[in-house]
Design a protein that fits this description.
The chain has four helices and three strands; from the N terminus they run ααββααβ. By secondary structure, it is an alpha+beta fold. The relative contact order is 0.14.
Length: 157
């Protein structure tokens, strides 16, 4: 009887340790959520850059040019560091957006059976592959298809 408390405590620690091993630590889950948010932000920025190009036929020099209170557009920042994402453009239709990721994010994890584990909400393998990334700093290069985003301007008299 005198060892019952010790046995219970050890059993409890084993259960907690096994649980953390199976589902991961809260710290890791937090880091994965930060990465998921970074991908969502880069997708938003990419869409806003496409909209900007469609309206102006060129890309902005800086991300801050996308901010537009009238349209309710504010460029997102990194959820952990609160720093701006990196952006550059090499032509009027090609740009690069960069972020620093905590964990590797591969397409099979992004669309894997456990969406809660890597919650990008992407269920298309091609789309998921477009946002796969290693741990650390990674850049995504995107090109705007002039034919797809073409803006036909018609004079209305």
């Amino acid at each position: 009887m005198k060892y019952a408390g010790t046995i219970s405590a050890v059993a409890g620690l084993i259960v907690i340790g096994t649980g953390l091993w199976v589902v991961g630590s809260p710290f890791r889950a937090r880091e994965v959520r930060f990465d998921a948010t970074r991908i969502k932000h880069l997708q938003i920025i990419s869409n806003q850059l496409s909209d900007y190009w469609q309206a102006k036929a060129t890309l902005p020099e800086t991300l801050s040019q996308l901010n537009d209170p009238l349209r309710g557009v504010t460029v997102p920042v990194d959820p952990k560091t609160r720093m701006s994402y990196e952006y550059s453009h090499t032509s009027d239709t090609e740009f690069t957006v960069c972020a620093t990721f905590n964990q590797e994010g591969l397409a099979d994890e992004i669309i894997g059976p456990d969406m809660a584990y890597y919650p990008y909400g992407v269920d298309d393998p091609v789309q998921a592959a477009n946002w796969s990334h290693p741990a650390g700093r990674h850049c995504f290069t995107r090109s705007i298809d002039k034919d797809f985003f073409r803006k036909d301007v018609k004079n209305i008299d």
